[in-house]
Amino acid sequence: MTDHIQFSEIKQALVLLDQRILPNREEYFLCKTTQDVIYALQTMVVRGAPAIGVTAAYGCWLALRQAMDQAGPGWRVRLAELLRDLEDARPTAVNLRWAVELMRADAAAAGEIGAEELSARWLAKAKAVHAEDIEINKAMGRFGAEAIDDGDTVMTHCNAGALATAGYGTALGVIRAAIEQGKRIKVIANETRPFLQGARLTAYELHKDGIDVTVACDNAVGHLMKRGMVQKVVVGADRIAANGDAANKIGTYTVALAAKAHGVPFYVAAPASTFDLRIQSGDEIPIEDRTPREVTHIGDHQITPEGVPVYNYAFDVTPAGLISGIATEKGLLRAPYVQAIKEKIGSV
Ligand code: MRU
Of 254, 247, 249, which Cα lies nearest the Cα of 202? Predict the structure, then answer.
């Protein structure tokens, strides 16, 4: 599945499969301005760290076109403002900042070129980021699949699949690669309250691909592990610190604790662009606090008493000590992570 993020030459727009209404309806959302892209990111029309990065790369190009229209010769100043707004759309997935910085660095390398020339350059760059993401996921999948055995039931949390990337997926890429290697794999997709990425999106894309998937409520994790029904856990990540601490969808930390208690190996799969080597530990990762409505309501129906506050932290951090390995496109990293990350991903 790769048509969920498309660039339309005819419309000169970014076209996104609307993940808010899957699996019931397959409708597309058109982004023609920076504000459209920010709205799509914040309301989760598109979500998942690498998909956010790809979207942001196209978003930079849309920002440039908008700056040219709005500011004429003053486009560089307007562009800088729009890129700052774009970069702040969501706080936890570092791939957003990574993509905007990549485009800024590209503009800096190009020097004092005209807006039209930069526009052509940035559109090509965004398309390259888009295409490369699929290749990165396939490489990551091959490395990660080393840790998966024939006959395993693999639990995953949230959606770290094709929909969360340009295609193939990170955690689901590991599962897809293991299946391509001939291993017989079953998947347990945790429901992932409140946005239900597991129940709606992971189940949707695996079922569509004919992969054996069963949805479980988030609070069934301990029970399923205690019964020996889970051999491995593989999840994605939104930001990984220099010491290997990994932020991912809320509930991931609880899954890792349960995995530790039951001796189930717990793996993270993420590309190099998800590592934030400016921060030393997970304590420095900003955690998105989303609207209470996602928790208080199911659709239009309110399920909590009026006036009762709720927590809606969208992510948590799993300490490196609970992680058995981190699959990346550069290899399967093992503890001690500070050293492995320095060697494979870069220096701090
Ligand atoms: O809030 P979301 O849906 O953007 O959160 C997504 C996740 O937590 C994913 O597991 C993570 O981005 C990895 S995606 C390959």
Answer: 249
